Amino acid sequence: MIRQERMTVVSQREIAKDIFEMTLQGQIVQEMSPGQFVHIRVSDLLEPLLRRPISIANIQKEAEEFTIIYRAQGRGTKVLSQKQVGDEVDVLGPLGNGFPVEEAREGETALLVGGGIGVPPLYELSKQLNAKGVRTIHVLGFQTEEVAFYEEEFTKLGETYYVTDDGSKGFKGFVTDLLNELNPDFNIFYSCGPLPMLRALASMYEEKKGYLSLEERMGCGIGACFACICKTEEGQEKDYVKICSDGPVFEKGVVKL
Ligand SMILES: Cc1cc2nc3c(=O)[nH]c(=O)nc-3n(C[C@H](O)[C@H](O)[C@H](O)COP(=O)(O)OP(=O)(O)OC[C@H]3O[C@@H](n4cnc5c(N)ncnc54)[C@H](O)[C@@H]3O)c2cc1C
Ligand code: FES
């Protein structure tokens, strides 16, 4: 069930250049699953008015806490990065349909491919896959070393590779270049990141089962304003989907990339 709650900031730290990790406490954590997102009103003032959509990166139900990882780039996310421990934040969520963890079976291998600020939702996904006995391989792409994060966290969960545009950390190039070299053996893939990366993966692994999380500019976040519509591939039930309420995660082949 979608709810609006004033959640309390329990930690906030900069984990890479302009990349912040914020943990919030509140009751809606109980409803969260990997790949879903929250819609955050960053200020009680009139400006900035629109909420910002941010993925759920880590869920700790017992403590009623969840974590987001976000890049402070524009007006809204910069305001968010100034919040202090004890401040309250207006959160709407959890929103959307997340990654189907049940599609990977115990003993199978899942390939998780992330790019930039598409990496955060893969962390909770990997935790839940590992908890049910699925082996995970993580391939994480960033522009440079200074904006890369969570190496220790992902490495604890499975085989982890970093890829940077300039080679400052790990492999130099695109995640697809590394995947061509690695040629990993896996049963299913999950991915979140920039559209060109998702497009390249979908055509590279045409014969595999895969799920892609899409990012689109959003208004309401709950399916009411049509700000986030995308065309579907031919043969689909609907001609378009709303990323916020039908997604953000779709099976490969549903949305025209
Ligand atoms: C489902 C979903 C999950 C996301 N998860 C994350 C995450 O985990 N971490 C993270 O850093 N970012 C994430 N993003 C992107 C994030 O929402 C934007 O970077 C952020 O809204 C930009 O706001 P701003 O205040 O920095 O920029 P501004 O330029 O001030 O934003 C102006 C307006 O444009 C919208 N906007 C700008 N860029 C984007 C974008 N790329 N996607 C959607 N709306 C945008 C904002 O929501 C706002 O309404 C996600 C986006 C979506 C749709
Ligand atoms: S953001 Fe309003 S319909 Fe998706």
From TrEMBL:
Keyword Transport: yes
Domain FAD-binding FR-type: from-to ranges: 2-101
MF GO annotations: 2 iron, 2 sulfur cluster binding; electron transfer activity; flavin adenine dinucleotide binding; metal ion binding; oxidoreductase activity
Pathway(s) per entry: Pyrimidine metabolism; UMP biosynthesis via de novo pathway; orotate from (S)-dihydroorotate (NAD(+) route): step 1/1
Cofactor: FAD; [2Fe-2S] cluster
Binding-site list for [2Fe-2S] cluster: 220, 225, 228, 244
Gene3D superfamilies (alphabetical): Dihydroorotate dehydrogenase, electron transfer subunit, Nucleotide-binding domain of ferredoxin-NADP reductase (FNR) module, Translation factors
Protein name as annotated: Dihydroorotate dehydrogenase B (NAD(+)), electron transfer subunit
Species of the source: Ureibacillus thermosphaericus
